[in-house]
Amino acid sequence: MNFLSKLFFTFSLLFLIVILVLTAVFFPTEENSSLHKIVEIPGGSSAHQIINILEEEGIVRKNNYILGAVLKFARLEEKLKYGEYDLSPAMNMAQILEKLVKGEVVLYKITIPEGYNSEQIAELLDKKGIVEKESFLKLVKNNEKSWEGYLFPDTYEVPKGYGGEKMLKLLLSNFNQQVVDKLAPKIEESQFSLPEIIILASLIEKEAKYEEEKSKVSSVFYNRLKKGMKLQSCATIQYILGTPKERLEEADLKIDSPYNTYLYAGLPPGPICNPGLESIIAALEPAESNWLYFVLGEDGRHIFSETYEEHLKNQNQNQR
Known about the structure:
The chain is mainly α. The protein contains 13 helices and 6 strands.
């Protein structure tokens, strides 16, 4: 074989290799496939293991040596992010690798209801596979500061296995955006500090079921605090008990705890739940009233009164 023949053979071979690589990279396994799969790439997976997973799931062709070569040649192995991916055989290798390098993992919508405490939030996130309950609670209730009250209730989009530290950071960041930043002027004008506002808002959240009642409940607490009266919030007793009771007993009101607002005047030492924005606004903007009492009516709404005599009358009527 002369020099020109060898050169032609070499170029032909290189051309064939290039065509094969381009075909493997830019042409999908099944161009018209409508199949989509949630494929999990576990943490610590090697390039070889990732290829095996993609092959077993039918996303790429079997014995895909070119994919392994591309990963090593382009030094992408260390750049691949782990997690759950929405993949299809209709995607080409370039599209699949782009997703894995960018970390475009599947996101799940998680709604944290208003009034949930940290235990309930941790259980919810654990069930959804977002965090591990106990490790999350350790972060929320550390020795230096408890973040109870600041885990802002909202809808979040996060991947599975997101982790406690990232989730806590996301919740606190949203609190800062929705409360600290947006309500800054009102917080500065308030007679209470931000921690006191959140404590008060947590009581309002648990006491008032309807939005239009929140500012009314807030006014009762303001009026009582102004007069030096005990708040006597049943919600604080339920918080102490841990497992809520349908009806509190006299003995429950005598439990010795700093959270017992039947025994101790002023606000409790910390929030009893994580209040929503409406309750926080109500804590900043109480209704103008002389009310000192409220009792729950049959329809789930409260009856407000200025005097103890009125309050007793409302209680008796409600019991009848």
